[in-house]
Structure formats: C-alpha cells, structure tokens
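Title: Prediction job returns without error message
Component: structure pipeline
Severity: low
Priority: P3
Assignee: unassigned

Description:
Job completed but the reporter wants confirmation the result is attached to the right record. Sequence as submitted:
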Amino acid sequence: MSCSRKPCVPAALAAFFYDHPAVALAFSGGTDSAYLLYAACACGCRVRAYYLHSAFQPAFELRDAKRLAAELAADLVVLEQDILKSPEVSANPADRCYHCKRVLFSSLTAAAAADGFSVLIDGTNASDDPGDRPGMRALRELSVLSPLALCGIGKPEVRSLSREAGLFTWDKPAYACLATRVPAGTPLTAALLRKVEESENALFALGFTDFRVRVLDDAARIQLPAAQMASALERREAILEQLSPHWRAVLLDLEAR
C-alpha cells in the first residue's frame, strides 16, 4: 500500500488537507489516527507522524504504529517521554488526562515546530464526547486541530473508510492508555503499569479480546465482554496461573464491558 492509492477520503476532509498542506500528526497507532495518516498521505499533504512513547502505552501500540507508517511509506518520529516525572500526572488526580495531554502535546508541539510544522492535528473524531474527555481541554488550549471531528466524521465512518482503504487498523478495538486502569488518587508508578500491561498481555495470549484489567487496591479486576464470560470461567485456572503472580487477588467483574 502507498500514499498514491485512490483515496477513500470524504470531500470535507480532503478540503481540510487542501487548506492545511503541511501538518504534524499526533499518532497513536489506533484506528482514528491511522486513518488520518492515510487520508493526509492520500491527499498529498506533507505529513509527519509523531508517536509519543511513554509508560502509558503498551508495546503493541508502538508496533502497530510502525507497521502502519511503513505500509503507507509515511514519515514517523518516535518521541520518548518520561511522563511519570510530572508530579501532576503521577499523582493521578481526577483530571490526570488534562495534565498528561498538556505535558505530551507541549513536547510534541515543540518537536513539530523544530521540524518546521506549525499545524498540529490529532485523531479525535465526531463520536468522541468532549464532556467525557478532560484531555480535550488541553488540546484546545494548545490549538491542536481535530480534522475528523471538524468534518463531522464519527467512529463508524472512520472504520468503514479504513476498511475500504485496506488499513489493518479498521477494526482495531479502542484501547485507552494504561493509566485508565488505575483509579484516581492511586499514584501511578512504572511497576504498577507494567503489572497491568503484563496481565493484559497474558489475557490476550489466552484468546480474550476487548477487555480491561483494572486495579482495585492490590487486586486485578477483569472486565470482559458478556460473550467471553463463560470462557473466563472455564479457563479460570489458566487465568489465575498467569495473573496471580502479579496480584493479591484476581476478580471477575460480572458487569460486562
């Protein structure tokens, strides 16, 4: 696949890139930013994707980002960020996402400006609820543009367009950062985030999908789709074998995701 393929890009989005012929993209490797990178390439925009690598991202997200950028022959820069050095973030207040976005996107803005980019975009889409995402306030304060939201393109259309474009990310489940597994007020540490990531990797390896391993004191609370509950009970011993070394207790949340 290359950027010269016939674009699967709505007219409004094509017009955005016509008006903004050079952009820096905050690139997570997820469905939304992956499609946005494709669309920018397809429209002939000069785009550079920046992946912010921190303790909050599981390893597979970076692998996906590198794979997609390679398939599009797109320019990718990986920015290392020690996000836990920020006391406002590591303390994990209720508005942690705001402080995190301020730190990460300030770093990204500086890197993009040094590379000659004055316009920074992200993959927020029209289905995202601003009231449920405090990080959006930080994006507004830093003048980050969200082309999908601005053009009225929601998640279902992003997935449909991505599938039409042949992107492997078209049906990728939404995957919030690892910090969202930890309740507000519980300090964030690299060790705790590693435990969460290793536990989720173990469940992936056992064949489970679209789940969360949430921290409850020193216990792991597994949230699964309803269709996978029976399998979890059948594979109880395998799950305990994998997760018990990390946690005092392993719990199954009976309220499905």
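Comment from assignee: result matches the submitted record. Confidence is low (pLDDT under 50) at residues 1-5.
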